[in-house]
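Fig. S4 source data, part A: sequence.
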Amino acid sequence: MSRIRTLSDAGPLSAAEQQLVDACKAGETCTLGDGTRPEGPDPARTIRADLLRFLILGGDDACRVDEYGVALRGAFIEGPLDLSFATARGRATMVACRFDQPIAAMQARFETLALGGSALPGLNAQGARIAGSVFLRKGFHATGTVSLAGAEIGGQLDCAGGRFEVKEGDALNAQGARIPEAVFLSDGFHATGMVRLTGAEIGGQLTCVGGRFEVRDGDALQAQRMRVTGSFFWRNVRAESGSVDLADVHVGDLVDDLASWPPAGRLYLDGFTYDRISGAFTDARKRLDWLARGTVWEGEFFPQPYTQLAKVLREMGHEAEARRVLVERERLLDRYRIKRLRAELADLRALWETIWSFLLRWLVGYGYAPFRSIWALAALIVIATGLGHQAWESGDFAPNSAIILSTDDWRTLAEDATVANPAKVWSDPTGPGRDYESFNAWAWGTDLVVPILSLGQTEAWAPSTARGPWGRRLWWARWVLEAFGWIVTALGAAAITGIIRRD
């Protein structure tokens, strides 16, 4: 069928079409019927798609369309509207209209494209150039894919209150689109099918407040490598099915609520970055719940979202919350390292890394809680003191001096079978060794465990392996206690001085 190139090519015009021609020439809005969207074909409100195309492109000398362009309301558009590679004159506004076939507008050029409240089987505006804004809002209903892939929109993309519905595939595709102002997928926006924003560049805010996303299979929202200069609003969102993929996405401010995010297995946050959390929850407990939903994918753990959250919290002044996030990151790294170790069985290096990581976690909180080492030292001192006290009371201690051991006084006590505790008798205030270093279980335990202290106790007294079981036990246990004392002290000092890196 040949296209309408001149008004005479259109043949006889219906009353509705004549009304539209007159309105376009006068730069006015043409409202057919009561201005509401027709439910089906209506001769009194039907406009041929080819005539509408002729007018959108500016008409001819006999029907010069005003520079304001076409503004149509309440029409039934019959036939395919093909505007591909065409340039519209002025605005292209078709509000509350019903199209019986999809609109084709590949590589088309518009000043403004407004289809608010209209119903259509689909829109292909791939690569289109719109100087102003695109309005697909307030009752807009598409039953096929709406594609703005690669489009350049000079204003905003407003889909607030619009419904995008497909049986399979993309409901709304704005992949690679460039939009210097805001994008609204909010206030009753409902997509049944994938919303694809992969690689889109949005100069203003992206608002999904009150939006609803669902898909039979795959991603409900796919936004890999999307860039949003302004705020990303994700509140009161219903992500009822499908996944939300924010891999390698960057936004300015993150404004969200926990309830809007889908559960674990349907959220992907690896590479998601943001400059600030604004008007949203910052407490670590809720944020860790959020991260737990989006950092494990197909059994693999991705730590980057924890690092990102800690960085932002620290920059916002929430230092304690940031430390909690980083400790949790290390704990999860341990957990998944153990899983890998079990899978790899005899990986000794992974075993050592796991043991070392556990020590870092429990003793200094991975460097974020260095004073935990004090409690560990205290526990070791208590253990050493208890063992030392028991060995002393059992008579299993002896002076740690070759000179003392060879004296007649000590040898007399040590060889006397009636003396149960030679060391205690020898060091008694009235005994022969009263001027020797007095034994104190607490001082001896501290001297043994803390390597940077020298209280003289371990130099003066040592457990004997020949006098009883407690001496033998302490003789072996002191090597373990002393070794752990070195480890705990060294890690604590390294964490306090910053040798253990915190970032």
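Fig. S4 source data, part B ends here. The longest helix spans residues 469-497.
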